[in-house]
Amino acid sequence: AYIIAEHCVGTKDTTCVYVRPVDCIHPKQTGKGAFEEIQQLYIDSDECIDCGACVLPCPVSAMFAEEDLPEKWNNYIKINTKWYRK
């Protein structure tokens, strides 16, 4: 599966959400009401089909195949997985 790493934190560009062929990328919402702020996007590893369609459109280069994820961001594997296990 693909992992969304640190560069996505605080980014509000959701281009990757609209280019993927399956519904596997979702924002984390904070706050209450219609004006919730996106802090980070997450990839559901159960839904991701490893197509890589999200990688090039990402304006902050935050998308990585799990095997290509820089070691310093390995904690984002757990962060992405935990988001969908709640």
Describe the structure.
The chain is of the alpha+beta class and 86 residues long. Helices cover 19% and strands 22% of the residues. The chain contains two helices and four strands. It has a two-stranded antiparallel ribbon with strand order 1-4. A two-stranded antiparallel ribbon has the order 2-3. The protein is globular and about 25 Å long.
Task: Give a brief rundown of this model.
This protein is an alpha+beta fold and 86 residues long.
Sequence-ordered SSE layout with sheet pairings:
Layout: E1 2-4, H1 15-19, E2 25-30, E3 37-43, E4 63-65, H2 75-85
Antiparallel strand pairs: 1-4, 2-3
Sequence stretches where pLDDT stays below 50 over 5 or more residues: none
Question: How many strands?
Answer: 4
Biggest beta sheet summary: 2 strands, antiparallel
Assembly type of the chains comes to single chain
Q: Roughly how much helix do the residues carry, as a percent range?
A: 10-25%
Name the shape in a single word. Answer: globular
Q: Measured on Cα atoms, how large is the radius of gyration? A: 12 Å
Question: How are the strands of the largest sheet arranged?
Answer: 1-4
Overall mean confidence score, pLDDT: 84
Q: What is the H/E string? A: EHEEEH
Terminal residue distance = 19 Å
Content of β-strand: 15-25%
Structure class: alpha+beta
